[in-house]
Amino acid sequence: MYLRHSFIAIAVFLALSVPIVESSASSQDHAVNLPADIGGQYSVAGTNPNGDRYSGTLEVLAHGNVYEFRWNAGRQYNGIGVKNGRIVAVAFANGTDGSGCGVVNYKIMSDGTLDGIWGNWGIDASGSEKAKHVSGRGIEGNYTATGTNPSGTPYQTNISVRAAGRSYKFVWSNNSEGFGVRLGDNIAVGFGGEHCGFVAYQLMPDGSLDGVWGGASPQTGTEKARKQ
Which residue in 20, 38, 96, 177 has its CB near the most CB atoms, within 10 A? Predict the structure, then answer.
């Protein structure tokens, strides 16, 4: 993974320029039997943003209601993932320590509300966040949000969402910011700084994961993970 090999220069979640993929992922949730557990061993094959191909392995481990992702694709990478419907959102970093990286997996509701599940690397529990759209068009605009930390404590925040090329930039009033990619009716948003990267996977009926990954660059890569 070329981009992952050079993440010092890539503010992975802080500039995720990913195409808005209008897949039918969410609309088919009710009609497709999806695996309940994504844990296990996978073989991966993908393309870097420059078109070069790579391959490797991936191990997914359940930790409470979040997942640890361990890649070996020329180098080691470690990440935190959360599942919301058939979309799995992951934040990762080089090496075996993903400290500081976090991910939010929002489902876009019919009234424009973003109903999210989020996690931070190293914490074996997820938080939740519901953001009400108060101004703007489409996904862009301003939101008021309430949520619950993994510890169970509640919080409130405001969120600004703006298009950034083919992706969306999220700025929370609690001094966090990130970039997100849309897959169907979900938005996977990564945060945590320049050492963090992101993957947005669609869970397929056969248990495979079909993903888009990237960082601060306008380009993105792709990755398919097949369960062994």
Answer: 38
